[in-house]
Write a structure and sequence with these properties.
5-stranded mixed beta sheet, 8 helices, SPRING1, alpha+beta, membrane, glycoprotein, 12 strands, 3-stranded antiparallel beta sheet
Amino acid sequence: MSDPRPLLRRILRLATAFAVAACACFSGPVSGIRKDIGFIEPIMCRSTVQGRHLISDDNGYVCSALSINPWSYCCPTTGDRFSCQGCKLDLQCCNSYEYCVSCCLNPSKTKKEDVLKLKVAKPVTAGTYTNVFDFCMGRCRHSSASVVHENAYASDFHHCFSVQQNSSVESSSVSKLLGINVIVGRPGESCSLVCKVRGQSCVPSRLSVLNKCEILQKYMRCKSGCFRSLGPDQPAEVVDEAPTSLNPGACLYMQMDERLTCDGSHQHTRRLCPCA
């Protein structure tokens, strides 16, 4: 039988060589725990819950209620961010609550520093806003000023997000209309007739107060926009049945207040009248 000791010595020499090589690869002590790796915190979104079909998240995306991520409550980022679909940017008003919130979240339209100075409207949450999303959610809900009767609104664009919602111009207009009944006439009626039918008289000096886009938009739909024009029937809204050339659905205001009159009328417009 051959001696096994030479084979054992060779095995020991190989084991020693591997051990030396392994030690050379590590210049210092090696720890089995990595201290530079942490758990990734899950991304979570806040989102609106008012609509049945659409949702807006605090990143500025709008999506269908069925497509929102059930774990993060975030909308897919494949759509447009800060979308102003269905909004009138000159009035900062939209016909959809969710798109109003999305548009409002755009930093170019709502400054965070301005929002943080504002007081929260409701007494039960008295204080200032802490973030833009809370401001946009609260401001985009329609106000009582946009309601004509029960669930009927003066305009389709009754979700507004302007920081200066209670501007000095609007407050001045409201004060000048105290004691005045603002009436929307029927097509072809003059303001003199509109007020007379109600046992009142048209107040010519208050026509200039109504002769503004922001006032027309409160009482009329103005779904095709608001434009300067010239005509004795203004301020007024072009009826939907009017010829296409007359821009159906548009609101019109007089370029020169001194030409405003209670007696003007047009078969394709409905006048906005001050009666008392």
